[in-house]
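From: lab user (bench 3)
To: helpdesk
Subject: output format question, protein + F0G

Hello, I'm new to running complex predictions and I'm not sure whether the block I got back is the full result or only part of it. Here's what I submitted:
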Amino acid sequence: RPGWPGVIKAYASRIPIPEGAEIVTLGEGNTPLLFAPHLSELTGCTVYLKVEGANPTGSFKDRGMTVAITHAKASGVQAVICASTGNTSASAAAYATRAGLTTAVLVPQGKIAMGKMAQAVLYGARILQIDGNFDDCLELARKMAADYPVTLVNSVNPVRLVGQKSAAWEICDALGQAPDIHCLPVGNAGNITAYWAGYTEYAADKVISTVPRMFGFQAAGAAPLVKGEPVPNPETVATAIRVGSPASWDSAVQAKTASGGLFEAVTDERILEAYRLLARREGVFVEPASATSVAGLLLTAADGRLPKGSTVVCTVTGHGLKDPATALEGNVEVEPLAVDPSAVAAALELS
Ligand code: F0G
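Helpdesk reply: Thanks, we reran it on our side. This is the complete output you should expect:
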C-alpha cells in the first residue's frame, strides 16, 4: 500500500496490538512540524509547531483512537463510549464507524464547538448531551463501561496514550533530537502524559540523548493543575480544555516534575490573541484550545522562564475549522464588504 500507513504500522515495534488484530486506521500521524518564523523572532528561540489539526478528523486524538479502536474491534465488543469536549467524540465516531462498531458519546450540553458536533452527527454517533460539564460526562461514561458491554475510549484507556506517544517520536525523528522545551495545552492531561512517555521511551532506547522540559498550559478559568486542586465549574472560551478534574492528574505532575517543566495558566484574552496571531502571522488556523500552548510560549518568553536560544515545539492540537463560531465572533474587525463585481479592484485599492 502506498504512502504513510498510519501510526500503528509506522511504529509497529512500539505500538503493540493483539495478535491477528485487523488494524483500524484512517492514515493518522505524519503531521507537519512547521517552523514558525514570527514566533521565533518574538521569543528569540527556534519555534516549531506540531500541526495536529492535519490528522484525519482534525485533532491529535486520532493517534490514540486508531489503537483504541483496533483493540476494541479485536476484543469482539459491539460498541464504544466516550465523554468528550468534542474532539475525542469526533475521532471515536470516525474510527468506530470504520470498524463497524457503534459509538455513544456523552457531551456537555451547549459546550462543544459546532464543527465537532457536525462530525459526530455525520459519522453516525449516538450523541447524548448531558446537563453538566466534561468531568460529569466522564464519570457517567466510566460507569456505563463498567456496567455494560461497551469499551471506554477516553484517554483513561491506556492504549490511547500508547498511540499518542507517536507525536513525540515523529518530532524527534524530524529534528534528529528532542527539542529543549515542549509546550502543550492541558485539559484532561492525557496528551502531556503521552508525550512525556514517548520522549522518555526514546531516551531509554538511546534514540535521543536528552529529553525536553514539559511546559503545560491551562486556561485561567479551568486550571486545576496550576491551582493544585480541582475546579468545580471550569469556564473558558477554549471549550476543548474546559476540564476541572483531569483524569491523568498524577502522571501530568510527574511529567512536569521529572522534566523540570512547569504548569501555568493563561487568560482567555491571551489565548484569543495567540489564536489570531497564529492565523495572521504564521498562516496556521487552529482551534482556541490549541492556541493555549502558544499563549503560554509568549507568556514564559516575556517573563524570562523560556531561555533564549532554545529549540521549542508547541503542539497545536486541533484544526481551526472545528470552531468556526469563535473565528467569526469578535474577530472580524471589518465586516465583509458588499461590492458590485465591477468595483472589486477599486475596493482592494489595486491600480
Ligand atoms: N487540545 C484540544 C483541541 C483538545 O481537544 C484537548 C482535549 C486538549 C487540547 C487537551 O488534551 O485532555 O489530553 O490534556 N480534548 C478532550 C476531548 C478533553 O474530549 O476531546 P488532554
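A quick orientation on your result: The chain has a mean pLDDT of 97. Let us know if anything else is unclear.
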